[in-house]
Write the structure tokens for this entry.
Amino acid sequence: MPIITILSLPRPVVAVLHHNGIEVFVPPGQRGCGMAPLAYGDVETARETVARNVRVLAELAREGYPIPVLRADCRIYAPT
């Protein structure tokens, strides 16, 4: 089962995962976690970003694919 990620993974992380036999799939259409606009007070853009990511990732999550998040600030902010 491939890893599904909510954010684009840095190339070195992908290389380590591939080296260990783990397939990585980054679904098209996802965006950052929304923390950047939230940090600048743009709550509406942050909400839109999260809603878009939920739409992109929801079915994959229901199918049981893991969705790791590498940045702690995005993990805290991302819906569980």
